[in-house]
């Protein structure tokens, strides 16, 4: 919590953008959701069991003609419990494996597929570092070890080139365990030796020739 004399600079920004901390927090939320779902289904099962026991006692005092109806009601209760459990499990599985939407200006790779989503757009004004985020998703049960990104030279329509050594990635490499997502910051260092314009290149993953992303740098000069 921020005090009366605090500012946004007092927030623990390092923790906010720490991938490991974010994964731990996500795991805690999923665990709480699973516990809540289990408790809810257990409650339904208990209610169904109590209802079934009550009907059995009533059936001892009723005529035998009523017993088929009691059995039918018990089966219906069981079916409702099973259907509820399946629905909860599907929702929980979706939160654990589905990748979220790609933010504007960011690109994403599915490490278990053979394609990419969107493109990486970097907008810059003046010299200095220009950044954009790239996302890696691994929704499968197998880890992919350490992943390193590479970038080609960036070429403008008039032939100007920003060489690949002006582009850095953080972190590099990045670990991709099972069922995880990681964000990587791509930074282009712009200096006075380059002319403003639109530059295009290609992002690659080392050792994975089927995965690539287009990168577009829109660089405008500072207003004088």
Short note summarizing the structure:
With 224 residues, the chain is an alpha+beta fold.
Explain what you see.
With 224 residues, the chain is an alpha+beta fold. It has a domain at 114-220: Immunoglobulins (Immunoglobulin-like). It is built from three helices and 13 strands, in the order H-H-H-E-E-E-E-E-E-E-E-E-E-E-E-E. The strands form three sheets. Strands 3, 6, 7, 8, 12 and 13 form a six-stranded mixed beta sheet that branches. Helix 2 (19-61) packs antiparallel against helix 3. The longest helix has 43 residues, at 19-61. The chain starts with 12 loop residues before the first helix and ends with a strand. The relative contact order is 0.13. Residues 95-104 have low confidence and may be disordered.
- CATH homology-level superfamily of the domain at 114-220: Immunoglobulins
Strand content: 25-35%
List low-confidence stretches. Answer: 95-104
Helix content: 25-40%
Q: What structural class should be given to the helix and strand makeup? A: alpha+beta
> What's the level 1 CATH class of the domain at 114-220?
Mainly Beta
The total of helices stands at 3
For this structure, the CATH topology of the domain at 114-220 is Immunoglobulin-like
In round numbers, the mean pLDDT is: 73
What's the gyration radius in Å?
Answer: 28 Å
Give the overall shape, derived from the CA principal axes.
elongated
Second CATH tier, the architecture of the domain at 114-220: Sandwich
First CA to last CA: what distance?
41 Å
């Amino acid at each position: 919590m921020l005090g009366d004399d605090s500012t946004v600079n007092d927030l623990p920004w390092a923790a906010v953008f720490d991938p490991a901390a974010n994964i731990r927090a996500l795991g805690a939320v999923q665990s709480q959701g699973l516990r809540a779902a289990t408790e809810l289904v257990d409650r339904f099962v208990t209610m169904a069991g109590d209802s079934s026991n009550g009907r059995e006692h009533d059936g001892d005092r009723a005529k035998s003609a009523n017993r088929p109806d009691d059995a039918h009601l018990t089966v219906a209760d069981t079916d409702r419990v099973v259907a509820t459990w399946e629905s909860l499990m599907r929702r929980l599985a979706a939160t654990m494996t589905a990748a979220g939407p790609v933010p504007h200006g960011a690109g994403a790779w599915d490490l278990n597929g053979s394609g990419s989503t969107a493109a990486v757009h970097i907008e810059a004004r003046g010299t200095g570092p220009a950044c954009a985020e790239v996302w890696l998703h691994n929704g499968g049960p197998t880890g992919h070890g350490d992943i390193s990104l590479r970038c080609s030279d960036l070429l403008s329509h008039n032939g100007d080139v920003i060489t690949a050594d002006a582009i850095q990635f953080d972190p590099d490499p990045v670990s991709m365990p099972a069922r995880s997502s990681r964000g990587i910051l791509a930074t282009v260092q712009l200096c006075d030796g380059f002319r403003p314009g639109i530059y295009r290149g290609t992002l690659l993953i080392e050792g994975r020739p089927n995965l690539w992303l287009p990168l577009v740098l829109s660089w405008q000069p500072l207003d004088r």
